[in-house]
Amino acid sequence: MTRRPFVCGNWKMHTGSQTAVSLALDVSEGAAAHSAVEVAIAPPFPWLENVARRLRDGPVSVAAQNCHFEEKGAFTGEVSPGMLRDAGCTHVIVGHSERRTLFGEDDSLVSRKVAAVLAASLRPILCVGETLEEREAGSTMDVVGRQVQKGLGKVELVELPLVTIAYEPVWAIGTGRTATPEQAQEVHAAIREIICSLGGEDAGSSMRIQYGGSVKAANARELMSMKDVDGALVGGASLDAFEFTEIIAAAAENA
Ligand code: 13P
Q1: Which end of the chain is more exposed for a tag (fewer CB within 10 A), N or C?
Q2: What is the set of domains in the chain, with CATH numbers?
Q3: Which residues contact 32 (CB under 8 A, 6 or more apart)?
Q4: Confidence of residue 255 (pLDDT cuts 50, 70, 90)
C-alpha cells in the first residue's frame, strides 16, 4: 500500500498577523512543486480564518493546534471543532505533548477531542510519544500503545482512515535531539500493528504515521525513507518557509 506522505507545520504560539500570512503564502508557493505530498500548516487560532482564506484552492491545508470537545456552551476561552471548520480548517492537532504536560490533558480528554473533530467532519492528527524517563525505563511501547488505543477509543472503525497519528517522542521536541531513523521506524511499525489489530489490515496499512521532534531539512530525508514513516509534524523548522519546503521536498522523494 502506498501512502501519500503528509507534512504538517505546527507553528505553536509563534507569528503575528502579518508574518502568518506571508509565511503561509511562501509555504504555499513551495508546496506547489510537490503535489505528491499532502501539506498542512497549523497557525495560532487568531490567524486561522485569514490564513485559510488566503490559501483557498491552493496546495496547503490549514490545521488548528487544539480544540474543545463540545460543539458549544459555557466554556470560556475554548474553541469548538465546528468553529474551526467554519474558519476554514480541515485538520486539528489533538493531544500534543505540550497540551498533555503543560495543560493536563489525559487520554480520556484526548479521545473525546478526537471524536469531536471527526464529528465536525475534520481530520484529527493524534499526537503520541514517550518521555525520556519512560524510554529509559523501557516502557516506550506501553506508553505509546496506550495513547494510541485510548486516543482512538471513541473512533468508529469506518472513520479510522481519516485519522493521522504523529509519533513525537517528548525528549526530541524542541531539543535538537532527533530519534534515529531506526528508533522512529521501530515505534511506527508497532503503532501500525496496533491499528491493524484495531481496524484490520487495510486500516493499518493505509494509516499515515508522521514523525515529529526536531525534524529539519538535514534529517528529514533519512527519517522519511523509513518504511513506516509517512511524513512529519514539524515545529521550529516550519517557521522558515525555505527549510519547511526542503522537508516537503524530502517527503516527495519518498512518495
Ligand atoms: P520541533 O520540531 O520544534 O522539535 O517540534 C516538534 C513538535 O512538537 C511538532 O508538533
Answers
A1: N
A2: 6-253 (3.20.20.70)
A3: 58, 59
A4: confident
